[in-house]
Structures are given as C-alpha cells and as structure tokens.
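Running this now, will post back.
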Amino acid sequence: MNIITNLFSSSVGKKYIMAVTGFSLFGFVIAHLIGNLQIFLGPEAINRYGHFLQSNMEIIWPARIGLLVIIALHIWAAIKISAENKAARPVAYAEYNPTVASYASRTMLMSGLIVFFFILYHLLHFTVQVDQVNLTGKSFVNLHDAEGRHDVFAMMVLGFSKPIVSLFYIIAISLLSLHLSHGVRSMFQSLGWKKKSYANVLHCFATGVSIFIFVGYVSIPIAILLGFGKEALSK
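Update: finished.
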C-alpha cells in the first residue's frame, strides 16, 4: 500500500505514472494506425477487421475502459507535475529564453489536452457514431456491406469526405505527433533508460516514429479528399 501511496504522492512516482501510461498510449496509437491503414486494402479488409473487433465485446470493452483509465491517469500526472513545477519556481526567469527547450516540450500540456478533446470527438464520430457530429446527414449505424457487417470502409470515406472534419483530424494528428516527439524521449528519461551514449539514437527514433505516425494517419483523410473510395461507394 505504501508503494502505491508513494507512487501517487511523490514527484518521481507521478513521472513514472506519466511515462508508463504514455508508453501504453504510444503502443495503442501504433496498433490503431495499423488497423486503420487497412482501408487502403479495400472494403473487405477493413470491414473484416472492424467485424472482428465488434464480435469480441468481452475483449474490446475492457480494453476501451482500460484505455480511458490510462488516458485519465496520464492527464492527471501531467497536470500535477506541471503544477508542482510552477510551484517550485514561483518567480519567473529574469530572462526568458524559449530556445532552451523545444517547442514540443513547451507545449506538452496544451497539446495533450487538445488531443484529449479530439479523442472524445473521434469516439463520438466513429465509435459511438452520433449522427449530429458526422456532418453528412446520414447515420453511420445503418451502414452495412453485402455480408451484413458494419461497413467501416463506407463510414470512413463518408466521414472524411467533409473537408472540415478532415482538417480538424489533420490538425489533431499534427499535435499528437508533436506531443509524441517529446513524450517518447521523456518516457525513456523518466524510466531511467536514457543514457548519453545513445541519447541521439533515442532522439532520432522519437522524431522518426512521430513522422511515421503523422504521415500514416493523415494519409487516410487526404486520400479520401482526393477521391479514394468514392468509386467503391458508388457500386
């Protein structure tokens, strides 16, 4: 019990919580991207993937609840650490030099909160499928393919065919990638895995994987805006 108490009350403990939850969310972002990219394989692949998830609610719902708990803990730890840092430095620096820290590191809390609100919208858009937020005038719930499965392909094409939705998505993914570019480096440092001998390698890895995530996610709405998937829907 003392270990748990110290974990949530100490500054080091909060950094561990933020690092471990950040690592879990990083893994989810990669897995979710791999699943979403199946849209480029056509309706059969992405609909089969979606059907598999929806047919295993005993797995997917605990995973969703666990993900929400992890997100809540990550945000809580970030806010607490930020508040503690400000309290420890009540007087501002005489000369503020923003070049000492990267833009990503200076906007971690703000970008994280914006991404959080985007996640809520994204859940309402494609998971809960609330008609009022998709801006298409159609119900995503009623979309089914020839096999009777939920037509995830049609839902994504229709959803991203609205430029305002795609633009919001691209901006949010940009912030997420920026957040991860610093978060991945901080995660290794908080867990004590960052050493001078390979610090540059970690920096390159964090930057590279952030670019990969950005390109992977935004390729979907951009491709749809350029006409991808429209022919399949018209058949």
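The two ends are 61 Å apart (CA to CA). More later if anyone needs it.
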